[in-house]
From TrEMBL, chain A:
It comes from the Bacteria. It is found in: Cell membrane. PANTHER family: HIGH-AFFINITY BRANCHED-CHAIN AMINO ACID TRANSPORT SYSTEM PERMEASE, SLR1201 PROTEIN. InterPro entries: ABC_transp_permease, ABC_transptr_urea_perm_UrtC, LivM-like. This is Urea ABC transporter permease subunit UrtC. The chain crosses the membrane at residues 37-55, 67-88, 116-138, 145-164, 193-210, 240-261, 317-340.
From TrEMBL, chain B:
Pfam families: BPD_transp_2. The chain crosses the membrane at residues 6-30, 64-87, 94-112, 145-162, 194-216, 228-253, 265-282. Keywords: Amino-acid transport, Cell membrane, Membrane, Transmembrane, Transmembrane helix, Transport. It is a multi-pass membrane protein. It is found in: Cell membrane. Belongs to the binding-protein-dependent transport system permease family. LivHM subfamily. This is Branched-chain amino acid ABC transporter permease. The keyword Membrane applies.
Length: 386, 294
């Protein structure tokens, strides 16, 4: 299927096909319950698009996407809690606060009463956090393993922080029991379908954004930074800026996904945002092909579907399976499923690619930059400068 | 005064646990660049070793003394297998080793749940480690003093090994310049295996040690791994003395923060301190001086 998508026309056709499937076929054939489940998978896919950009294209192993996902989710959850409290309770104070806390809404919750502020914050707060962290880390040329470990520590600290603040964040129970979404009743099946459609549209938009970024000059620079950061710096570009921008885009996508996750799933808790869920976001991306456009999306949806099918009936088996997926895919097939055709068809070629220190990238049709040899790579930014 | 000494000791004690957990990491991470997320699970394996040994040997004192070398062996063998089966084909992809070993960690965790059950188990501390001694009026638990002594002993052993034996000289040579070491006739393959054996063995010892201060559950590893990595990062990769300073500094800071705020805000503050510190010294407290740009 990937081979057919070559060229601009093919991309447009593929995009239309995807849109038809997600927006037309799925709502027509699937019952409302499955649609909600699919909507949840699509949220993970939106996160995966961002990880594909940052990790697959930019080489930044971000183990803390759960933080941005959680920020978006908690902001949305806080708004929905406050809105429910004024709509149904009358007092304006969310139920769990009178249970565990003083019964008063803390000051930093108040801004999220406003729907406009909430929607802005869902985008801006994850973006700002990523901007500050990205500048602090990348400008000082902290990279590779150091960055990975710091981002992981961020996820750990975020989860610990949420659990500790029982009275204001719901602690380890998280926030749940929502009844309305911007005034729409969450029990109404029509509104559930609407939520799914919003998630599908956001996913399509984020895929389009990722495609444009990958095919722009910026996208080529990003790959160049991944493979030879020093050369890019010597050519007069600032790798820190390129990495920070990508990191912010990935964070904003994760934040939006989190905000959609809450009304679709109905709960957000520290168990969805800590170290383990943050790493778990990566496996789908790796299976699909981390450096490709659609690989992360398809991988994330399949892993989420497999998890929801298997983990409730065989919980023990699922964990072994997940562990083995990490071991087999990352250890033996780093290009993901997207690299299978080239693994079978052009074994020799793949081997030479794998023996270079750079990451063996799936030769996706959408990634001419990823296939560049070092000389061409170095030449590319020069070309861009003309 | 008592409060101050109590706090200082709590910090040192936390630091000694961190040091035990991080010593092995600073070896494997420092020499091979392998980010072993399963290191925490090797600790867990060491802790369960102590539990199993105690089932066999009823006397808590003898079983503790048997558990320490047994834990080292269990951790070390797990490390050897991991290195031989998976990691040695991945040395050119250091970041990917993190994800592969995370998969290994998931499998080991689930295996522990299936073998020992999800609820935590307890290892009895020997009678001679129960109770406190008073230092300037502050009560100091003997178990924590034992862990502090054990971690200093492991540190001394490691330094002696690295500085004073031919094996250690070979290991240091490989850290400094792998290619040159190889052309000088050092088998980097064997050096890698031994380093991994020792590093993972130290995780096993750390696991035995923490059974004295808490119960053992399949999740034991996850609670230490992130902090242990932060110690290595802040100390400077591959630097034993950096890891020592970082471990005790983080231990003391964390207990001060947790005392003056709450445990959860303390965690966040620690992370901020480390990010700010890396602004000043991006390579950690000590860094290898090389001419490479990376």
């Amino acid at each position: 299927m990937m081979g057919l998508l070559r060229g601009r026309l093919g991309t447009a056709a593929g995009f239309t096909l995807g849109a038809l499937l997600l927006l037309g076929v799925a709502p027509a054939v699937l019952p409302v319950f499955s649609l909600g489940l699919l909507g949840k998978f699509l949220c993970f896919a939106i996160v995966a698009v961002g990880i594909g950009l940052a990790w697959g294209r930019g080489g930044m192993l971000t183990l803390g996407q759960g933080v941005f996902f959680g920020l978006g989710a908690y902001i949305m959850a806080m708004h929905m809690k406050l809105a429910d409290a004024s709509l149904f309770g009358g007092s304006g104070v969310p139920d769990f606060m009178s249970l565990y806390g003083s019964g008063e809404v803390p000051g930093w919750w108040e801004p999220f009463r406003s729907p406009v502020v909430t929607l802005l914050a869902v985008v801006l707060i994850p973006g700002l956090v990523a901007l500050v962290l990205g500048l602090a880390v990348f400008k000082r040329r902290v990279k590779g393993a150091y960055f990975a470990i710091l981002s992981q520590a961020l996820a750990a600290a975020f989860a610990v922080f949420l659990i500790g603040q029982q009275a204001t964040t719901g602690g380890s129970n998280g926030l749940s029991g929502f009844r309305s979404f911007f005034g729409f009743d969450l029990k109404d099946p029509n509104n559930k379908v609407m939520l799914y459609l919003i998630a599908a549209v956001v996913l399509l938009l984020s895929i389009a954004l990722a495609r444009q970024l990958m095919h722009s000059r910026f996208g080529e620079l990003l790959v160049a930074v991944r493979d030879q950061e020093e050369r890019v710096r010597f050519l007069g570009y600032d790798p820190a800026t390129i990495k920070t921008v990508t990191y912010v885009v990935a964070a904003v996508l994760a934040g939006i996904a989190g905000a959609l996750f809450v009304p679709l799933v109905g709960i957000i808790s520290p168990a969805d945002v800590g170290v383990i869920p943050s790493i778990a976001f990566l496996i789908g991306v790796a299976i699909g092909g981390r450096a490709t456009l659609l690989g992360p999306v398809l991988g994330a949806v399949s892993v989420a579907a497999a998890q929801s099918a298997l983990s409730s009936t065989f919980p023990s088996f699922w964990v072994y399976f997940q562990g083995l997926l990490f071991i087999l895919v990352i250890g033996f097939m780093p290009g993901g499923l997207a690299s299978l055709p080239s693994l079978i068809g052009r074994r020799g070629k793949f081997r030479t690619a794998a023996s270079t220190p750079a990451l063996p990238v799936a030769p996706a049709p959408a990634s001419p930059a990823a296939l560049l040899k070092p000389e061409e790579e170095a030449a590319m930014p020069e070309e861009a400068r003309r | 005064m008592e409060l101050l000494i109590g706090q200082m000791f709590a910090g040192l004690s936390l630091g000694s646990v961190l040091l035990l957990a991080a010593l092995g990491l600073s070896l494997t991470f420092g020499q091979m660049g392998v980010i072993n997320m399963a290191h925490g699970e090797f600790m867990m394996a060491g802790a369960y070793t102590a539990f199993v040994v105690q089932q066999a040997i009823a006397d808590a004192g003898v079983s503790l003394l048997v558990s320490i070398p047994a834990g080292f062996l269990v951790g070390g063998v797990l490390g050897l297998v991991l290195e031989a089966v998976l990691l040695r084909r991945m040395y050119h992809r250091p970041l990917d080793t993190l994800l592969v070993t995370f998969g290994v960690a998931l499998v080991l965790q689930q295996a522990a749940r299936d073998i020992f059950g999800a609820p935590s188990v307890d290892v009895r501390a020997p009678a001679w480690l129960q109770g406190n001694i008073e230092v300037l009026g502050a009560p100091i638990p003997l178990t924590r003093l034992f862990i502090l002594a054990l971690s200093l002993l492991c540190l001394a052993g490691l330094v002696l090994l690295l500085r004073g034996t031919p094996l250690g000289r070979r290991i240091r040579a490989v850290v400094l310049n792998r290619d040159l070491a190889e052309t000088s006739g050092i088998s980097t393959r064997r050096s890698d295996q031994l380093t991994f054996f020792i590093g993972s063995g130290l995780a096993g010892v750390a696991g035995v040690a923490v059974t004295l201060i808490g119960s053992t559950s399949p999740y034991l590893g996850t609670s230490y791994i992130v902090d242990a990595f932060l110690v290595v990062v802040a100390g400077g990769i591959g630097q034993v003395k950096g890891a020592v300073i970082a471990a005790f500094a983080l231990g003391v800071l964390q207990s001060v923060f947790e005392y003056s705020t709450t445990a959860s805000i303390g965690k966040v503050l620690i992370l901020i301190v480390i990010v700010v510190f890396l602004q000043l010294r991006p390579q950690g407290i000590f860094s290898l001086k090389t001419r490479s740009l990376a």
